């Protein structure tokens, strides 16, 4: 569902943009396509790694295992485990929230839930190669590292308030 | 491994990283060899994701290319650069919030904004907001986790992401942003 919507939106925007661009300035359109192609070549190895990692993560970590692991964990260990699980997994948010809700139902604390959701959305372990290619190593490591800390902080704050 | 002292981001970009790719391929082959029961699921996940990428990525790259060709550097500097202030911050949050797909789509866009002179802090805010402050996503979160949970988490996230942006900008290379401002 989410993917279909994205696909339609992005591709129609791209096609529309290309048509308008071509109409107004062929030179610039050619330049734009060249940049796009260069970008693709630059990203190709990172994309290959991404494909392999996604397969491995989905093939080896099952959501059921995660929920049984985190279900009865709370406290700091639970938060850390949840943060790591969220960072490594790549689950669409539409599935992630029901999953998290079921985690809470099966005994996980609010803190664990908040940590899981936050790292799940903010940190992409499998997309690291692409992020490094585009943004550079330093920015990528800082962003992901600090996001991890932020997840733990948010979890603790939520735990204190809820 | 390649410790050259040149300013060399250009160089870095070209070098690529064949070792990492080889390690990942080898690890994947070994895992699949030793755990045949996971083979099917792994290959299917990779295949599904490959289809997703093929459908999304060309469009994203074309958009990024169009953006690079048409949008002037001064425009980006004006709205997201160092003088953009709170407007720039708000704009970064807002740009990220528009529902436009998974995070890996945002990296090329962020990189081209950065190249055109956006502040690092604003780019970090843009990426983080893209990652975790999607409007439809918040609605789903509210439905499953309750409004109090959603509002609190959202509030904390916005504050901490803003601080993270400033912090990363301080540590990671103010010089880089300034260099592109000079151009």
Strand and helix layout:
The complex is a heterodimer of chains A (about 160) and B (about 180).
Chain A: H1 2-24, H2 26-60, H3 63-71, H4 75-88, H5 93-105, H6 110-122, H7 128-135, H8 137-161
Helix pairs in contact in A: 1-2, 2-7, 3-5, 4-6, 4-8, 5-6, 6-8, 7-8
Chain B: H1 9-15, H2 18-34, H3 39-70, H4 73-80, H5 85-97, H6 103-115, H7 120-132, H8 135-145, H9 147-172, H10 174-182
Helix pairs in contact in B: 3-6, 5-7, 6-7, 7-9, 8-9
Largest sheet of chain A: none
Structural class of chain A: mainly alpha
Number of helices of chain A: 8
| Total of DSSP H or I helical runs spanning 4+ residues of chain B | 10
Helix content of chain A: over 70%
Number of strands of chain B: 0
Mean pLDDT of chain B: 82
Could you name the ranges of chain A where pLDDT drops below 50 across 5 or more consecutive residues?
none
Any idea what the shape of chain B is? globular
Whole-angstrom Rg of chain A: 20 Å
The share of residues in helices of chain B is over 70%
Shape of chain A: elongated
The CA-CA distance between the termini of chain B, in Å, is 31 Å
Listing every helix as H and every strand as E from the N terminus to the C terminus, the arrangement of chain A reads HHHHHHHH
Radius of gyration of chain B: 20 Å
Total number of strands of chain A: 0
Number of domains of chain A: 1
Note the beta-strand portion of chain B.
under 5%
């Amino acid at each position: 569902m989410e993917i279909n919507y994205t696909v339609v939106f992005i591709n129609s925007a791209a096609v529309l943009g290309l048509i308008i661009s071509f109409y107004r300035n062929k030179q610039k359109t050619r330049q734009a396509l060249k940049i796009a192609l260069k970008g693709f070549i630059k990203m190709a190895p990172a994309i290959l790694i991404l494909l392999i990692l996604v397969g491995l993560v989905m093939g080896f970590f099952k959501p059921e295992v995660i929920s049984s692991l985190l279900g009865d964990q709370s406290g700091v260990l639970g938060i850390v485990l949840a943060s790591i699980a969220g960072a490594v997994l790549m689950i669409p948010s539409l599935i992630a929230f029901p999953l998290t809700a079921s985690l809470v139902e099966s005994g996980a604390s609010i803190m664990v839930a908040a940590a899981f959701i936050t790292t799940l959305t903010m940190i992409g372990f499998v997309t690291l190669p692409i992020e490094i290619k585009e943004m550079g190593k330093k920015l990528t490591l800082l962003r992901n590292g600090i996001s991890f800390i932020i997840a733990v902080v948010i979890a603790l704050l939520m735990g204190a308030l809820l | 491994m390649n410790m050259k002292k040149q300013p060399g981001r250009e160089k870095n970009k070209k070098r690529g990283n064949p070792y990492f790719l080889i390690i990942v391929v080898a690890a994947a082959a070994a895992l699949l060899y030793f755990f045949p029961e996971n083979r099917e699921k792994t290959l299917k996940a990779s295949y599904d994701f490959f289809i997703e990428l093929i459908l999304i990525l060309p469009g994203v790259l074309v958009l990024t290319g169009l953006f690079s060709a048409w949008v002037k550097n001064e425009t980006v500097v004006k709205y997201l650069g160092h003088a953009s202030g709170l407007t720039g911050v708000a704009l970064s949050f807002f740009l990220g919030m528009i529902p436009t797909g998974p995070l890996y789509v945002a990296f090329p866009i962020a990189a081209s904004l950065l190249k055109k002179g956006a502040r690092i802090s604003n780019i970090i805010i843009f990426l983080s907001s893209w990652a975790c402050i999607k409007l439809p996503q918040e609605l789903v979160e509210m439905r499953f986790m309750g409004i109090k949970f959603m509002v609190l988490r959202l509030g904390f996230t916005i504050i901490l992401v803003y601080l993270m942006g400033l912090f990363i900008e301080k540590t990671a290379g103010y010089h880089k942003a300034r260099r592109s401002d000079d151009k």
